[in-house]
Amino acid sequence: MEKPQFRPVGELTYNQAVNELDGILRTMQSDSCDIDLLAAYTRRATELLTECRSRLTATDKELQAILAGLQQ
For the stretch 55-65, what's the b/e string if a residue is b when 16 or more beta carbons lie within 10 angstroms of its beta carbon? Predict the structure, then answer.
C-alpha cells in the first residue's frame, strides 16, 4: 500500500488545513478506510490540528493587542 503524500503543513492556508482535516476524518470514518494507512492519517491529522491551534492562538493574541491599543 502506497503511503499518502502530503504538502508540508506550513505551506497550507488555515482553510486548506481545515479542509484536509475534514477529508481525513471522512476517510477514517468510512468503511473503505485502509487500516494500513490509519497511522499515517492519524499522524497527519495531529500535525494539522497542532498547526491550526497555533495559528488560532497567534491570531487571538494579535487581535487582543489591537483591541488593547484602541482602549489606550
Answer: eeeeeeeeeee
